[in-house]
Design goal:
Layout lengths: L1 H17 L26 H32 L8 H13 L7 H34 L1 H6 L7 H11 L8 H7 L4 E3 L8 E4 L5 H16 L7 H13 L1 H22 L10
Antiparallel strand pairs: 1-2
Helix pairs in contact: 2-4, 2-6, 3-4, 4-6, 6-8, 7-10, 8-10, 9-10
Length: about 270
């Protein structure tokens, strides 16, 4: 009898320890247990910035799908437009104005509606770009991150939201590894073999960093600062794409250091 009571008492104590109303957990750890759950109370500024990025990313996907659809439908009618959204923006209005084109009256009206949708998506994406620029200027960390070459308002805002003060990562390499821009390893018997980048982690951030690095590489040929000279030698030795990934990896580590140490970016001018 005493053993039974002791077991029941232990079970009751364990259930109270895990039951949310016992006081063991607070509202912010397990808010969904409480009847007065309000999601707005646990949403921070970083989540708002990520929200804007996701909405813009979805708009870009819709625009890409629309451009591909326009090119495909025109190709079925024997009209070929070059790849890229700029080619569609340039060629489609000329095609609609050409009275001798292969388009019928009905198809011409349909493509005109598609072109209007494309212009609306361009305006929507531009509004989100302007909003990100405003968010970048309003945040002290984002402004410091945007000083790094190849890091614009989009990259600065999403990195600031994702990284914070860098306390979640032990060092800069851990952060770059979380973005998948460090080499994969196939090591055995004390011999290290480095392969291509791992492509693990945050694909969106990795894409932004690599695109920004490519923009820097395109304008580094006529410059003589230390970074540009290093990139010029790297392009000659390993190629453009490898140099872009190397600069993206370098920028990721610099961004972590700026966030962790609360410092401003300082570029070395001399070679």
């Amino acid at each position: 009898m005493k053993k039974t009571l002791l077991i029941l008492l232990l079970l009751l104590t364990a259930s109270c320890a895990y039951y949310p109303y016992s006081g063991g957990y607070n509202y912010y750890q397990y808010p969904y247990y409480y009847g007065n759950y309000d999601p707005a109370r646990i949403v921070d500024a970083g989540q708002d910035i990520q929200l804007i990025h996701r909405i813009r990313q979805e708009a870009v996907k819709r625009r890409t799908a629309l451009v591909n659809q326009i090119r495909g439908l025109l190709g079925e009618r024997g009209i070929v437009i070059g790849q890229g959204i700029h080619q569609v923006r340039k060629s489609l209005p000329e095609l609609l104005e050409d009275a001798e084109s292969a388009l019928t009256t009905l198809s011409r009206a349909a493509f005109a509606e598609q072109y209007e949708r494309l212009l609306e998506l361009d305006k929507e994406i531009k509004r989100y770009d302007q909003k990100m620029g405003q968010l970048c200027q309003a945040n002290e960390l984002s402004k410091r991150l945007a000083e790094v070459p190849g890091v614009g308002p989009m990259t600065a805002t999403i990195v600031a939201a994702d990284l914070g003060e860098g306390q979640h990562y032990a060092n800069a390499r851990h952060y770059s590894a979380s973005l998948g821009i460090v080499p994969r390893q196939s090591s055995s018997g004390g011999k290290s073999v480095l392969l291509g980048i791992s492509k693990r982690g945050n694909c969106y951030l990795r894409t932004l960093l690599i695109h920004g690095a490519r923009a820097v590489l395109r304008t580094c040929h006529n410059k003589e600062d230390k970074l540009s000279l290093w990139l010029q030698k790297l392009i000659m030795r390993r190629g453009f794409n490898v140099a872009a990934v190397a600069l993206a990896n370098k920028n990721a580590r610099i961004l972590w250091a700026l966030a962790h140490k609360s410092e401003h970016y300082e570029m070395s001018v001399s070679a």
